[in-house]
Amino acid sequence: MPPSAGVSALSRRTRVLLVIGGVGLVGLLAGSRLLDYYVNWLWFGEVGYRGVFNTIVLTRVLQFLLVTLAFAAMAGVTLAVAFRSRPVFVQVSGPEDPVARYRTLIIQRLRLFALGVPLLIGVIAGSAAQGDWQTVQMFINSSPFGITDPVFNIDIGFYAFELPFYRWVLDLMFAAVALCFVLSLVTHYIFGGIRLTGRSGQVSVAARAQLAVLAGIFVLLKAVAYGLDRYYLLFSPSNGGVFSGASYTDLYAVLPAKLILLFISLICAAAFFAAVFRQSLQLPSIAIALLVLSSVLVGAAWPAVLEQFVVRPNANDRERIPILHNIEATQQAYGLTPDRVSYQDYSGRSDASASQVRSETVTLSNLRLLDPNRLAKTFTQLEQRKNFYGFPDRLDIDRYNVNGKLQDYVVAAR
Questions:
Q1: What gap in Å lies between CA 22 and CA 31, rounded to an integer?
Q2: At CA 86, angle to CA 124 and CA 95, rounded to 5?
Q3: Less CB within 10 Å around the terminal CB: N or C of the chain?
Q4: Is the pLDDT of residue 175 over 70?
Q5: Measured between alpha carbons, how far is residue 244 from residues 163, 240, 322, 326 in Å?
Q6: pTM as predicted
Q7: Do β-strands 202-203 and 405-411 pair in parallel, antiparallel, or remain unpaired?
Q8: How many C-beta atoms surround the C-beta of residue 5 within 10 A?
């Protein structure tokens, strides 16, 4: 038997073993997932909510299929356009050119790459997207609250049910366009549309047009993102993302900045689309520099300056309107609106005499006089002992019986 025959038989045996191992691994994972679904199906049936479980499963399956098909279709179209617009003659740098070998391999297995790569990308994207079934179901079953916010005059149900769905769809579109850009870039490079020879390299007209269109779509999506970011200002990023309303800086600095950046993004997208008909990438480069510079100056620097020099020196006056909006929303949320609350004046008069008050030693000794927020610096100064010791920012108060007397103490872990 010649050596080549032995190597060929060994390689076939290795491929067979790899296929068997892969099928076994997929079967094991699928079996564990099906078992998990079966247990949940039984549990939901026992508590009388099997319809809810069926809705969850159906939603996840449909999301997986739709996102898989969408990503696979976009990736397939991108690869097809890049492949069909490849140069007819590609200069090879030498016999050991690695790109030429990859190009030959892809051409020999063109159908495998043309179908397998988009399908793989689609399956990965669909697997990641099917976990967000709650966002989709909240959007489908959204209902109005009957209360509008004071900034945009939009029903609160929009922020609770619809806005997260729009953000989810936008994030998927961002990911799809970015993947298509990378696929187009790699395909044009492998098939000679992009060459890294010389100082600046060479880019074919077809490669430049396709990449410019994808970049323009990405920047256009960024403009849509700036539009949605305006509504997220009501989640108060300065308060940890809680839906507590927009601050003074958000209303008078960040909100106008989002609108300015939105229009600049539209201009940048138009510059990328115009690059399809131009021989130079100078216009998109200027547009990107403008977008980055404006996002730093208008989107970050100006709100920070306004917060530091306008709001903080006079926060009570500047934040008065946002605080009033917050109080009104809190009262509505807890049902404490003026039409549902009755007020009674308390005179504060006592029928007890001064001697009776002095005799209530147990009650008087339990009156709390220590404020840990006020005593933090004093506590640290008295109890720190050494400079390398420290205390948490928030102190605690506890009662201890010392020498037969129960009283309050400020405590913290050193």
A1: 14
A2: 95
A3: N
A4: yes
A5: 16, 10, 9, 6
A6: 0.75
A7: unpaired
A8: 9
35-91, pLDDT tens digit by residue? 888 888 888 888 888 888 899 999 999 999 999 999 999 999 999 998 888 877 666
Residue 197's pLDDT band (cuts 50, 70, 90): low
Does residue 4 register a pLDDT over 60? no
Tokens matching residue 198: 């010389």
Contact 70, 176 (CB under 8 A): yes
Size (the chain), residues: 414
User: What does residue 147 show for φ and ψ, rounded to 5 degrees?
Assistant: -130, 135
CA distance 305 to 268: 27
Give me the percent of the chain exceeding a pLDDT of 90.
Answer: 35
- Both tokens of residue 199? 């100082």
Rg (alpha carbons) of the chain, rounded to whole number: 33
Q: Looking at residue 155, what DSSP letter applies?
A: B
Residues 128, 176: Cα–Cα separation, whole Å: 13
Residue-wise burial string across 137-162, b where 16 or more C-beta atoms lie within 10 A, e elsewhere: ebbeeeeeeeeebebeeebbbbbebb
Closest of 138, 133, 164 to residue 60, by C-alpha: 133
For residue 108, what are its two tokens? 């020999």
The crossing angle, in degrees rounded to 10, of helices 110-129 and 98-108 is: 90
CA distances from 136 to 55, 129, 353, 399 (A): 11, 10, 66, 51
Alpha helices per DSSP H over 109-204: 110-129, 133-140, 156-157, 163-190
Mean pLDDT of 272-286: 83
The single-letter DSSP state of residue 134 is H
What the block records as the tokens of 243 is 């839906």
Give CA separation, 391 vs 330, 379, 384, 394, in Å: 34, 9, 8, 8
Burial label, 252 (beta-carbon count in 10 A; 0-12, 13-18, 19+):
middle
CA 154 – CA 99 distance, rounded (Å): 55
CA-based torsion, 148, 153, 158, 160: positive or negative: negative
3-state secondary structure of 151: coil
Among 194-203, 292-301, 355-364, 370-379, top mean pLDDT goes to 292-301
Q: Cβ distance 127 to 71 under 8 Å?
A: no
Count of Cβ atoms closer than 10 Å to residue 75 Cβ:
23
